[in-house]
Amino acid sequence: MDRIVQLTARPGGREVAYDPAVAPPSLQVRAAKVLEGNWTGKSTVPSRSLYPHQWSWDSAFIAIGLRHLSPLRAQTELETLLAAQWADGRIPHIVFNPSVPLDAYFPSPDFWRSSTAGRAAGAPRTVQTSGIVQPPVHALAAWLVHLADPGLSRARGFLARAYPRLAAWHRYLLHRRDLGGGGLVSVVHPWEQGMDNSPCWDRPLSRVAPAPARSFRRADLDHGSPGDRPTDLDYGRYVRLAADYRDRGYADGGIEGVGDFAVEDPAFNALLITSEYALARIAHELGASESGPRARAERLTATLVERLWDPAAGMFLCRDVRAGELIPERGVTGLVPLLLPALPRDLATTLVRTVCGPHFGLGGTTRLVPSYDLLGEAFDPHRYWRGPAWFNTGWLLERGLRLHGERGRADALRKGILHAAGASGFAEYVDPYTAQPCGATGFGWTAALALDLLHDRPTGDGNRVTTIKGGDLG
Question: Which InterPro entries does the annotation name (predicted)?
């Protein structure tokens, strides 16, 4: 072995050999050091400065990378998150670290008041969390973590303990969040979708009266350039939506029981479908029936096409549930369904054409996929989710391209992601043209997904060593 990184400072660490034939060892070692530096003992923070707690979908992506360094630590990452699940099944988008000062991040635990405001919904009493959710990547992450060391996973009962919690999480989304009545999950806050500041939310957000600027203090501006972050007006609307949801006891009812923001999002639902396939594999591993999750995945795929596909746009669009119409904005969210194995072939072909066309420019004007339409009026290459390229969406699309036979494009995107991750210091996000770093550096999921791409590498036949195909998912 030419070079190793030793990860024994925390439980579950082990020596990891790096193969110089895969990629320069320095990139792998640097990525591992980011994850080691962000590890708290039970979970991994996205960023020591900007995001000092545990975030839901961040931890799922981080576990996917951690599995290559320490399968035990990757399992612990997910177990820590699942331990904060509410009785109604929701997995909160933030699990707060009580040792972090309240003013280090806003909204802080005293804003969410989960143990009191969320009591009727079954919020845990021993840990403070937020009351909203994030995209359901968790079953996919759990399955991939299991595959990294099945013997350890079985010995610890990892999947046996995770499965009922993951199943409850999916039930919550499918039964409590079908606000449009058409079979898809709705998000009730932009933070739930994960692409917080996307122009796709501008139209429904315009109905929301912002909280007064004097009623909150933004901690994010202490660590990031204002030009890279949401505006004060947008942030005021985020705060208003969250406060209103909290003041209703985090109750999910019909469309009349939610606030002004209710959106069916393509990526959120595509990730639920992907995780349903993974849940089917977990069920099979445990000797249970996999027919339920598989059938739901296939049904949800058909519903996604029916409700959110827009032939004129050549991609999926978000649906404003209150207005009853598609939102005419092209965001990267509408490309993520390329992950789905049952996506009709003609739609997959059209999505590839769109991602490589003038609106996203992949392989032409850009090496990475921008988060928003390059030709859109709201495009900004540096402002949070309004144009910059993000590494998690790039990772998802790399898998989707490879799944649908676009090996050359997948290989090129993989190389672009790895180059940008290393050159940017594992930035939170980057300019899609220049890869100039924006937001935080030493970002958890950037390092983790770079590690995954380095280890989960293309083979001679154009596939990846552990790539998920339709059969692997379900």
Answer: 6-hairpin_glycosidase_sf, 6hp_glycosidase-like_sf, Glycoside_hydrolase_63, MGH1-like_GH
Comparing CA positions, the residue from 185, 402, 141, 149 lying closest to residue 278 is: 141
Cβ-Cβ contacts under 8 Å for 285 (sequence gap 6 or more): 146, 159
- Highest averaged pLDDT of the listed ranges 142-146, 205-209, 460-464: 142-146
Catalytic residue among 79, 88, 428, 452: 428
The catalytically annotated residue of 196, 232, 290, 472 is 196
CA-CA distance, 98 to 42, in Å (whole number)? 13
In this predicted structure, the answer to whether residue 326 has a pLDDT above a threshold of 60 is yes
Write the secondary structure of the chain as one string of H (helix), E (strand) and C (coil): CCEEEECCCCCCCCEEEECCCCCCHHHHHHHHHHHHHHECCCCECCECCCECCEEHHHHHHHHHHHCCCCHHHHHHHHHHHHCCCCCCCCCCCEECCCCCCHHHCCCCHHHHCHHHHCCCCCCCCCCCECCCCCCCCHHHHHHHHHHHCHHHHHHHCHHHHHHHHHHHHHHHHHHHCCCCCCCCCEECCHHHHCCCCCHHHHHHHCCCCCCCHHHCCCCHHHCCCHHHCCCHHHHHHHHHHHHHHHHCCCCCCCHHHCCCCCEECHHHHHHHHHHHHHHHHHHHHCCCCCHHHHHHHHHHHHHHHHHHEECCCCEECCEECCCCEECCCCEHHHCHHHHCCCCCHHHHHHHHHHHCCCCCCECCCECCCECECCCCCCCCCCCCCCCCEEHHHHHHHHHHHHHCCCHHHHHHHHHHHHHHHHHCCCCCEECCCCCCEECCCCCHHHHHHHHHHHHCCECCCCCECCCCCHHHHC
CB 438 within 8 Å of CB 444: no
pLDDT of 16 higher than 50: no
Q: What is the mean pLDDT of the chain?
A: 89
- Is 196 an active-site residue? yes
Sign of the alpha-carbon torsion through 198, 203, 208, 212:
positive
Position 130 pLDDT exceeds 90: yes
Rg for the chain, CA atoms, rounded: 20
Q: How far, in Å, CA of 197 to CA of 201, rounded?
A: 7
Q: Report the alpha-carbon distance of residue 51 to residue 44 in Å, rounded.
A: 10
Instruction: Using a cut of 0.85, tell me whether the model's pTM lies above it.
Output: yes
Both tokens of 242, joined, read 């969250």
